[in-house]
Predict the structure.
Amino acid sequence: MANKYDDQIALAIEELKNRKETAIDTELYTSYLIQIHHSFMTYMGRPIIARLPDGLFYDWIEATILYMEKMELKESIQTSGLVSSITEGDEKIDFDNAVAKQATVITTNDIIKLFNTSLNAYRLLR
């Protein structure tokens, strides 16, 4: 069953493709777009399956890019650096990376805090 916002996701994927210099993983980007969409809609008190207000389209794109970049940074940091410990028979490798210790994990709640001024204009009263 198609969601009411599938056409918005298709437009957002095209916008992301235009902004990125490398090829994008459409499924991964769609997942990030949906996560941010759901967070935006929940914050605004609107049904999750509804279309995002048109005035928030570019905020949605910017929020998704920010979230995606932080997630990619976190992933790359966790798999690089000097090995600090390996135990025989252990499948876990710990990296001693000063950057990893300072890396900021971003959540969708952090995204909401960054974009709440824009979102408040579309927030429904309960």
Residues 6-120 form one domain. DSSP finds five helices and two strands in the chain. The chain has a mean pLDDT of 80.
